[in-house]
Amino acid sequence: xxxxxxxxxxxxxxxxxxxxxxxxxxxxxxxxxxxxxxxxxxxxxxxxxxxxxxxxxxxxxxxxxxxxxxxxxxxxxxxxxxxxxxxxxxxxxxxxxxxxxxxxxxxxxxxxxxxxxxxxxxxxxxxxxxxxxxxxxxxxxxxxxxxxxxxxxxxxxxxxxxxxxxxxxxxxxxxxxxxxxxxxxxxxxxxxxxxxxxxxxxxxxxxxxxxxxxxxxxxxxxxxxxxxxxxxxxxxxxxxxxxxxxxxxxxxxxxxxxxxxxxxxxxxxxxxxxxxxxxxxxxxxxxxxxxxxxxxxxxxxxxxxxxxxxxxxxxxxxxxxxxxxx
Length: 326
Description:
Largest sheet: 5 strands, antiparallel
Distance between the termini: 51 Å
Structural class: alpha+beta
Order of helices and strands: HHHHHHHHHHEEEHEEEEEEEHEE
Number of strands: 12
Number of domains: 3
Strand content: 15-25%
Helix content: 40-55%
Number of helices: 12
CATH class of the largest domain: Mainly Alpha
């Protein structure tokens, strides 16, 4: 046991030095330095200490390092020690660079808050709240554009945080009367977090405000590139099969007029013009059969989605249909 502790003492020293050194030298001097110490350095100190305690009974540097990474997975960032050091270092560098060119006071305040330890989404949310009731839409637009530019350059934020951030940016663009920019921000939010229903609710409202009532389909956060537009028939949405299958990751084959759609051990069979279909051999009567338009086979979207156990939601305000995944 004493021998083991002698071996690990220098190892612990090296790891502790690295834990302190990287964030300290990476941080620029200034008001936010003390706050950043608490965010970046402390989790790694605890990770190293806990890893050493776990490793007292073991031998070998590899075991110590492995335990460091296991411990760091439980810290407040949910990432490894390396990601904590370099990810947050990169975030701060990106924000500091943005501050050099950002002039809008609301945008500057949000970026400064991020430097001082606030999450990106919280900082943008606070910026949005501060702009509610502002009559000059140019001020709102200026803040939104400068914040989006800074956020676009930040590759270190996790997808869930990015989704929230772009949703708030979308609300700011909407306040400024920029529907197209608001839609773009909301579509990015949906792509970053396809499971969040609130993103689709706001996207549906935006499409309605824009007067876009054509059928729109999102599959796992993205809009498939349909070469024939989806359409509504007898209350059912029909979409081109090939593009849908590719988006879902399913295979399609044709056998004597029968369409076979397969994923894993699930198979759906249907025939153009025939309301009879089969899900793993079980017969199903369709409200609307598959059809052919401009050389493309169109199939009932909800039937295909639910046949593969995928949740399908319909937002009637703008005819938005969403397949969120299993």
